[in-house]
Design goal:
Distance between the termini: 59 Å
Number of domains: 4
Radius of gyration: 28 Å
Number of helices: 18
Bound molecules: zinc ion
Length: about 575
């Protein structure tokens, strides 16, 4: 990028000069002022809403990750309209009309090439909005593809059992010569050719083109062979080395040094914007990023040092652009759920079946395609589809035998998307150790908040709000009973809300758990006293025990009635 910045400053000067000479007649083609910053906290949230919190959440989860902010200085609406071109003949962004990529994903212009269609404006917005990919699953499309060192044993592991076996030496050598990450080089070739390789890697035509360069058009194999022949790539080694030099020359040395920037040309370092893209497939960056992530997973390197370049645009909407409805029947809306786990959760081939080689990540958003109605082995198994197309089963909630209930798949809406209540930054000390300090912080009772460390409960008064918890414990994660995050200091909290995934809230008098004390709570206690239900030894029972004597009886009923009449209050 250093070189790019110099180039840009020359361009800026040129533009300034041309303005002086031609005044308003000049038409600036280049982004005048693209800069890179590593200062996350300097991101202006009013100008770039939702970025800082997402990036900080990832940094908390993966302390070795580094982030660079690319201020594109481009207007979001201009970016979208520049990308939404080529209708009817050669769309700049195309989507494969399969499974859930139909309906609102497809532009009405009518373009068809096999299963490929013109991508709709909403699809472009959704895929280009970086906020939708600032999660552990989709982030790797932003990874800087610069060579920051490598472990030769990991490189050998990655190539073993693939068509690249035995070629680690030239991969690493070319990576060093060009400054491209050898991990990315391998991921790109495996993405293009599959593990076993194709006719372009087997030598059946006498030439090798492992990166599929110019392997497009009506007869991609012949065209790919012709290109390899023109370059003299008559061994796989030459194809690999030559392909890496091509990537370096055409992309990474031209500022397009992430998968996202290779797909979406919003980096103005090379001959302007919006034209120099590696692929038309709108999913390309995300899907290849997934390959990269899976590669790191296979060698246990996800949590290692990675650097991500996140592009920011001016005038983005307040909330992240939503996923187009992929159902061809427009009246049925997609059932989107957010993954509510601390790190990851396993995917399975069937309800309670074998684990497959894929995970769901904290805060990842997936489509639920089947909602289970019966339990198998103690929980519900919903079928989901990840953004990369993987379909599998996952536990919707905790198993019956587990003491604390937790919903893993939380239906999302606008309010639960921005989980600002999930910061947990309070304990970030300067020691820089590997544990998340906020999780180790001891919760101490105050006048308004009573902590029970044995039973892992926090008891609060009938009028408690989120601020009372924050005043006592600092910025801390509060989850509603349905698993979604609680936002806002003035929000009502209720019985069975959860603090830091660990402590359950007992709100005195709030037997129903809706956060309020009213006649429904009286009814809840009456039902217990009449033997219709049994809430003894539950958090609901604890909230109904307003006399704090360990029993549930008519004295509690009377005391709640007095609270409702405003005669007396309830104490913790
Ligand atoms: Zn179109």
């Amino acid at each position: 990028m250093e070189k790019g910045k110099k180039f840009l400053s020359i361009i800026s000067i040129f533009i300034i000069i041309s303005y002086c000479l031609f005044g308003l007649l000049s038409n600036p083609i280049y982004a005048a002022n693209q800069v890179i910053s590593t200062d996350i906290n300097a991101i202006d949230e009013s100008a770039y809403p939702g970025f800082k919190e997402r990036i900080n959440a990832l940094k908390n989860q993966f302390p070795n990750w580094n982030f660079k902010i690319l201020y594109t200085d481009l207007d979001w609406n201009e970016v979208i309209s520049e990308e939404y071109v080529g209708h009817g003949s050669n769309p700049r962004n195309q989507v494969q009309a399969i499974s859930n990529y139909q309906g609102a994903w497809i532009c009405p212009c009518g373009f068809e090439a096999g299963s490929w269609r013109c991508a709709s404006e909403d699809a472009i917005k959704y895929m280009m909005d970086p906020r939708n990919s600032l999660n552990a699953s989709d982030i790797f499309q932003f990874e800087e593809l610069t060579n920051n060192g490598y472990d030769m044993n990991q490189i050998i592991n990655m190539t073993n059992g693939t068509f690249l076996q035995g070629h680690h030496e030239e991969i690493v050598r070319s990576g060093n010569n060009t400054g491209i990450s050898p991990y990315f080089i391998i991921a790109r070739m495996l993405q293009e050719q599959g593990k076993g390789g194709t006719a372009l890697t087997s030598g059946v035509y006498g030439y090798y083109n492992p990166f599929n360069i110019q392997a497009n058009g009506a007869d991609p194999i012949s065209n790919g062979v012709a290109y390899a022949q023109s370059q003299g790539w008559d061994t796989l080694e030459k194809g690999i080395t030559g392909g890496i030099e091509f990537l370096s020359r055409e992309y990474t040395k031209r500022g397009q040094n992430t998968l996202y920037l290779q797909k979406f040309d919003v980096d103005g370092t090379y001959d302007g914007l919006y034209w120099h893209q590696y692929m038309q497939n709108i999913m390309a960056a995300q899907s290849e990023g997934t390959t990269l992530r899976k590669t790191y997973e296979s060698i246990n390197a996800v949590g290692d040092s990675h650097t991500f370049i996140i592009p920011l645009y001016r005038n983005m909407p307040q909330a992240a652009c939503s996923r187009p409805n992929g159902n061809s029947n427009a009246t049925v809306s997609g059932d989107l759920v957010k993954v509510n786990v601390n790190s990851t959760i396993c995917l399975r081939s069937s309800p309670n079946g074998a684990k497959i080689n894929a995970l769901l990540y904290k805060d990842e958003i997936v489509t639920r395609i089947e909602k289970a109605t019966t339990k198998v082995a103690g929980t519900y198994w919903d079928k989901i589809r990840k953004a990369d197309g993987t379909e599998a089963y996952v536990a919707r909630e905790t198993y019956d035998y587990e003491a604390e209930y937790k919903l893993y798949l939380v239906p999302i809406n606008e309010n639960s998307l921005g989980n600002s209540g999930n910061g947990g930054n309070s304990g970030n000390a300067s020691v820089g150790n590997e544990t998340d300090n906020s999780d180790d912080k001891e919760l101490i009772s105050t006048q308004k908040v009573k902590v029970d460390k044995v039973n892992k409960t926090v008891t609060v008064g009938p009028d408690a709000i989120a601020k009372d918890i924050i005043d006592a414990f600092g910025s801390i994660k509060i989850t509603k009973a349905d698993g979604s995050f609680l936002e806002g200091e003035q929000s009502i909290i209720g019985t069975n809300y959860i603090i830091r995934d660990e402590y359950i809230i007992i709100k005195k008098g709030d037997v129903t758990g809706d956060g309020y004390v009213n006649s429904a709570d009286l009814l809840g206690l009456q039902k217990h006293l009449l033997g219709i239900t049994n809430i003894m030894n539950t958090t609901k029972g604890a909230s109904a025990d307003v006399t704090n004597d360990g029993n549930l009886n008519s004295a509690d009923l009377l005391k709640i009635q007095k609270k409702l009449l405003g005669i007396s209050d309830l104490n913790i």
